[in-house]
Amino acid sequence: MANSSSEVITCKAAICWGVGKPVTVEEIQVDPPKATEVRVKMLCASVCHTDITSTQGFPGVYPVVLGHEGVGVVESVGDQVKSLKEGDVVIPTYIGECQECENCVSGKTNLCLTYPIRLTGLMPDNTSRMSIRGQRLHHVLSCATWSEYMVADVNYVLKVDPSIDPAHASFISCGFSTGFGAAWKQAKVESGSSVAVIGLGAVGLGAISGAKMLGATKIIGIDKNEMKREKGEAFGMTHFINPGDSTKSVSELVKELSGGRSVDYSFECTGVPPLLTESLEATKVGTGETIAIGVGTEPIVPFGIGSILYGRTLRGSVFGGLKTISDLSIIANKCQKEEFPLQELFTHEVTLADIRKAFELLKQPNCAKVVIKM
User: What region holds the Enoyl reductase (ER) domain (predicted)?
Assistant: First the structure.
């Protein structure tokens, strides 16, 4: 493989050619980085629910090189890149932070106007550094981690300590951090409060972890998979609800566990439309706050007006409200110091060549995260 930043690299990558089409691992060409870009040799990646929806129509650009969670080493840099050098360990992000635009300085949102989420699957100059047999390939958002090499704009990567566990670094590049940030930065969970988390995948477990850090005293995890009880407890869950064990609704079960008063905060992490209403109904009248995190392929079903009419708040969340430089760097530091039990997430591992197996593993009840070794 070439090491010169001026040469095209041929490598393997996982590609989806269209909605519902099988994922194939093929040889692609990765161009050298342009002025403000870095080319990254991936160390490992992991599978997030958004990778599955990327094969089902979100955001709808094909052919696409999959993957947006991962960690790698900078192989080469563009001539205007000053903040990174060859050999730096980095994780990709799909949100940038200029620290100067109206949104960045407002303190109200993590959605930077200068470096926005890239739904086009292309670089900021609307071109691609990836191709196959002369045909342009797209990214998932701003990166493509299921490839041995990828190129990203320097404003969409974060340098991390090289001693960080690669698998754990991959987990915090999206899933876990999204949930953690939703509790920390979006809801700003208060000490002594009560919390309900619907869906105990990496995102939900991150929300539990964030709520615990902030001092929530009652943290209710909800999942139809009984095996998630142990995972939830490892991250700080105090109570568990399996909706399959009762004919009552999720919101009723949460109400029973909270002395009939419901909870202060709820986090909907599944993207299943009817559960948004349940998540709202599970919070207190007048003051309850629901953070919608899960992304599904179905349109959201209109919720009962009473769910929100009685003073509850519903907020959407992208990347848990985390800013790349200001906030994700703090999580990365905590990860490097092993302050989170992220080993609990690492349940399965596959090679890039065997990527299709990852989709089958995710259907198994004991599967939390699948790590892809490059």
Answer: 18-372
